[in-house]
Every structure is written in C-alpha cells, then in structure tokens.
Amino acid sequence: MLFAVAGLLGLLGILNTPHLAGRLLTVTACDLVLTLAGLFLPWDRFGANSPALLGLAGFAVLGLSTWSFGGVAAGTGPFLVLLYAWSALHFRRWILAAFTVPATLAYLVPLILTGQPPLVVSSAVVFLPAAVSVAFLIESQARHLRDDRMRLARIEQWRAAMISSLAHDVRAPLSTVHLVLEDLRETATGQTARMLDAAMRQTARIARLADGLLDIQRIDSSGQLKLDRARHSAAVLVKDALSYVREDADVSADIDPDLTVYVDKQRFEQILLNLVTNALRYGKPPVLVTFRRDGAIDRLEVRDHGAGIPEALRPRLFGQFAGEGPESVGLGLWIVRQLAAAHGGQAFAEAREPGVAMVITFPAAALSG
C-alpha cells in the first residue's frame, strides 16, 4: 500500500510539474514494480527477514523521487518515516540500525546532487535521528506485543490440551463406576436403591459435563456448536434438570404446563443447572425458576433473593473468565451465554428487589424448527 500510494502521488505530481513528467513516470514505474513484488512474491519461502529487501529498494526509490522533484524532500520525507515505521513493525533492531546507511544516502544524496543550500542539507541532522528514534520505539512495542501473543498462544495450547485430556480421562473410570452402580442397583431395595439411583444420575451428569468441556474447545476453535434440538414440554425439562439438584436445596419452579419449547435437552439442562448452582452458591435462597412465553421468545429466568449484582458488573457477567470470587473460575456463565447463542437466544442479568435474575431467551417453538 505504501508503494502504491507513492506511485499514485507520482502520477499526480505530473499534473503540477509537467516538465518533470519523464522522471516522475520513472519513479511511478519503480513504485509499481515494488508494489507488485510486495504483493505476489512468496516472501515466506525466502525467510522472515527477506522483505527487508523491499525496504532497501524503497529507500532507493525515495532518493530518486527527491531528485526528480528537484531536491524538494517535503513530499518524500514523510514516506521515509513511514518506510522506517513499517520496518519497525516487522524486523528486529539490527535491521533498523542497518537501514540508517541507505536511509541517510536516500535523503542526503539527492539534496547534494541538486545543489541545495547547506541549511537544507543540514536538516538531515535533525530529521534522520528523529525517524530512527521513532522506529526504535515502534520496534520495542511491536516486540513486546509479539512476545505477549506467543505467550498467550502457548497458554491457549496448554489450556486446550488440558481440557481435552481431562474430558477424555474422566470418561473411562466414570464408565466403570456407572457399571458397578448398575450391578448394585439390580439387587438393592429401599433407601439403598434410592441412593444408588441418585448416584447413577450424578455419574451420568458428570459424563455430560465431560462432554461440555469438549464443547468449550469446539466453541473456542470454531465458534459453532452442533445442537440436537427437538420439541419438549418445558415443565418436564425443568423437572428432569432439577432432579440433579440436592434435595435440601430451596429451589422451586413455576412453569407454564402447556409450554412446549424447541431446544437441545442436554444443553438446556446444562444451562439451567449452571444458573441454579450459581444462584445457590453466590446468591441467597429461595431460588425460583420460571419459564414463560413472551411474544416470539421463550424466556427462562432463574432468580435468587441475595444482595444482587451492581449494575456496572452485570453486562460482563457472561464473559469468559469473568468470575471475581476466590471459588469462581468464570466459565460457567460464559458457557451459558454460548449455549444460548447456539440456540439463537441471549443471556443477560436483570436486577430484582431483592436479588438478581439470570435470563435466557430461546426462539419460540412455534417459530423454530
């Protein structure tokens, strides 16, 4: 882009100085060649520092341009600074230091050849050190950003590997536990049978949570999540999901018995259990779950009666790693938001007096599928 703009300005310069048309056409042709070289040459095959050759050629063309304009550097000086800035964004300091020689020649030689007065020539004493200093500052910041990006990439690779390994490693022993529980359940009776049923439900839930960990990885890598949506009774869905909540928890539900929703059952359970667990852990009972149709959307609401959440914090509650408490990882509500978005809905928090309501919307079943 830099060389393309320089070539265009060379053509425009012909309109103001037609007597220099030949020289300016030569400058424009050189800029065009460098533009095409920058766009189409396979620089990645030549090494990371190979594009620096464009910089060397660029300084030569800038010198030619200054000479073509009769030694007037007012137009080419800014391009010299921009060329140095581009170099600082992509190359190390030793290349910037090496560029001082061709940059100085590109600035001084045309001034000397065109017989400029000493005062104009001496401007290089101020201009060039300033350009080099700016370039070194840009290089320093760019280097820090590159290092930070590489460090974040390594952290992300470690996190993805950990999540994938954890999800897969949990499945094998969990399957064994579930089989043992099934065998024991066949002969159990009374309270023991009920306890084994609860244990089997929880192992099944842990298995789904392991799948959810893999979902996090899929959401991060592709931004999409495949859903198995079907029409379900909202009352049955909520009842089944709340069966995983401990029996002594103060959780109640108020669901329209005629409401049919179009959701992925497993993902819906994940959403509701995340919200109820958060309400019990960070809010104050009682926790009330409601599910109603509101025009074109189905609206799930999980409300606690705690101290509430400040208005300034509510917009970022559903962000990744947004948890601030010592026991909070900050992924639960982020997963909820991603699952809501996968359904075509939204997740947000609303103030209540007292407490806060976590609201999830879904497209109405009549308008979906």
Protein described:
This protein has a five-stranded mixed beta sheet. Helix 5 runs parallel beside helix 8. With 369 residues, it is of the alpha+beta class. About 2% of the residues have low confidence. 62% of the residues lie in helices and 12% in strands. The protein contains twelve helices and seven strands. The longest helix has 64 residues. The protein has three domains: 121 residues; 59 residues; 139 residues, 2-Layer Sandwich (Heat Shock Protein 90).
**CATH top level class name of the largest domain:** Alpha Beta
DSSP summary, beta strand count:
7
Helix content: 55-70%
Give me the CATH superfamily of the largest domain. Answer: Histidine kinase-like ATPase, C-terminal domain
Low-confidence segments, given as residue ranges, are 321-329
The helix-strand sequence is: HHHHHHHHHEHEEHEEHEE
Rg, Å, rounded: 33 Å
Number of helix segments? 12
SS-derived structural category: alpha+beta
Distance between termini?
48 Å
Might you state the CATH topology name of the largest domain? Answer: Heat Shock Protein 90
The amount of beta strand, in percent, is 5-15%
Write the CATH architecture name of the largest domain.
Answer: 2-Layer Sandwich
Overall mean pLDDT: 83
Give the gist of this structure.
This protein is an alpha+beta fold.
Sequence-ordered SSE layout with sheet pairings:
Blueprint lengths: L1 H15 L4 H20 L2 H4 L5 H17 L8 H14 L2 H21 L4 H4 L2 H64 L2 H33 L6 E5 H9 L8 E5 L4 E5 H18 L4 E8 L2 E7 L28 H11 L4 E5 L4 E8 L6
Parallel strand pairs: 2-4
Antiparallel strand pairs: 1-3, 4-5, 5-7, 6-7
